[in-house]
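To: structure desk
From: M.T.
Subject: fold request, one chain
Message: Could you run this one when you get a chance? Sequence is below, nothing fancy, just the single chain.
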Amino acid sequence: MIGMLRVFILGLAWVAGALLAMTAPARAAPIEPVECRIVTGAAASLDEAMALSPRSCGGSVARRVRGTVWLDYRDLPELAGQAEPWRMMIDNHRVGSVDLYMIRADGSRSHVAYDPTARDRDWTPGNYLSLPIAMTDQAPVTRMMVRLGDSEFVTRVRATRIAPESVAAAQDLKGGALFGMAVGVLGVTILFHLLLFFAIKRRFQLLYCAHVTMLFLYGFSYSSLILIPFPELTATGLSRLLSGSMAIATVTALAFISDFIEGDALPNWLRNWAKLAAATSLVTGALLFAAPLAWTGPIYSLGYFAAFHALGVISAMLISGVIRGSRTARVLGLAWSLPVLTALLYPLRGTGLISDTMIPDGAMVFALTFECLVLSLPVANRIKALRIDHERARERQSVLERQAQTDVLTGLSNRRGFVAAIDHSFTAPGPNQAALMMIDIDHFKQINDRYGHGRGDSILQRVADHVARSAGPGAIVARYGGEEFVVAIRGYDAKRAATLAERIRIGIENLPCDLQPPSPLTVSIGVACGTTDAIDQLLAEADEALYAAKGNGRNCIILANGGGSRSAPARAASAA
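Reply: Done. Structure tokens follow.
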């Protein structure tokens, strides 16, 4: 538990450090120019777009436009007299083509075409398109116009950034490292809990892994790191991955919470509501992944509704669990606090109530990483508790099995335990030869009738102890039934088996039993020898030899021959 807490605290410290590093200003931060957005027809020229642009722009506004959009940037004193190349970072929304026009102080113009679908296109961590701005010895740039062809403005895009090449490179390096750490944490978490799932196999583990997988896909796509293995992925494809993975993440979150929180902490109506919300988010996610572009506007409206509906249901489940005293719900509430707060900031940014600077790039990615780290603690604790319960159940099962195979009176194996021991021992590699003895206490019923069952039980215990000691640790000794015992020894031939049987017989005859009138306690023994793969035949032969010993006057040993017929009777004394 202490080790898990250390990992948890280190993880939280890492997330806090990453957020601080992400929000810390650079030595030369990129500038965010005032932007005007102009919607025109696809055939509109640069001059027409410049004429339509208002004289004063109050900042970018949210639009739901499908078509050609121009971004107009004026008053760029930072670019005056610059010789170092600069870069423009534009939010990587759905767009088919990008054209950059630079208007200089002397009236000259330059044009750079940029293909956002090309495999070798420039991008920067954080899901931005990166456009080079080549500075020359010409007049300073006073105005820039960016034409976005086949654009899909379905959400409020982030502000454009412009920075020198060196500053942009430093920002890319820092952003790539931070996003890489976040995505790496999510990826390692998936692998770790998948391994635990194959060991424990509980449904909540699978739901948790599915949830973290969706978070990983979102972070991998948002950071643009996905473009390393999949450079052919377009801005439209990235947009689908981002929105679709987040929608499916709410499905897995609802399913995980509903399954993970204790049953009595959530009312049935709330669990049913969670199922409805999950179904809505699942349909929305499927549409976001695969619907035609013409449906983008309505589907995004449905996506917003489904997302906030899911957040409401998640909050209701967590609040219900906390009110009903669920410790699990309290930890889950802590885990989801930061992602929910971050998710609520985005609509506020769209309304203009808060600025872009209040939500740093990658805020949601790091909020989701925080959620993943916090969720790992109760999940690991639940798995630990299940493993302890499983081990205890196995111990109880093992005890019950031992009890079922043990004779309570003598402590030897019973018939069931003897068969299990034979199956285990005689099938293992070793000598193929084996000997088996059937031992029966002579006139035991008379002892019980005369002295009572208490004295009879005492005699059974003494005989059992003597047989076990005489046979040694390598033998299988069991109480086969009533006053009958069985001994199986691997690697013994007939001669060694007869010698051991005689030692057992004489030892029992010399046991102090205080029988009146004074008389020795005696046993009859049947011995059979053969191979380990013919144990049933040995049992039958030893049993037949035992009956022969009883018919021969008792207190003797009879050896069965290998063919199954009884050998000639021989008194123990004469055998000696």
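Reply (cont.): The CA atoms of residues 157 and 544 lie 94 Å apart. Let me know if you need anything else for the meeting.
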